Amino acid sequence: MFEPVHGSAPDIAGQGLANPIGAVGSAALMLEHFGLPDQAARLNKAIEATTSAGVLTRDVGGNASTEDVVKALIEALNT
């Protein structure tokens, strides 16, 4: 299984506070496992670009929303 392991966090559901990085990192691991190392590397580079630019959710010291992080990841994938 390829999934970020965490609680369901019902206390923050629908508030845009969840950190999507774990889910995207899990997808990169899955792509690697399926023999798609270039695609996995693209996802990992997008994660690195997003986090190094400081686009972080509050659980890791930032103030970005879930949507902000996803938009930054997509932008990094498109560059």
Structure overview:
The chain has 79 residues and is mostly helical. The chain has one domain. The chain contains three helices and no strands. The chain has helices at residues 21-33, 37-52, 66-78. The model has no long low-confidence stretch (mean pLDDT 94).
**Dominant shape:** flat
Order of helices and strands: HHH
Rounded mean pLDDT is 94
Radius of gyration: 13 Å
Structural class: mainly alpha
Strand content: under 5%
Largest sheet: none
- What's the N-to-C terminus distance? 30 Å
Furnish the topology, listing elements before pairings.
Elements: H1 21-33, H2 37-52, H3 66-78
List its salient traits.
79 residues, mainly alpha
How would you briefly describe this protein structure?
With 79 residues, this protein is an all-alpha fold. It has one domain (21-78).
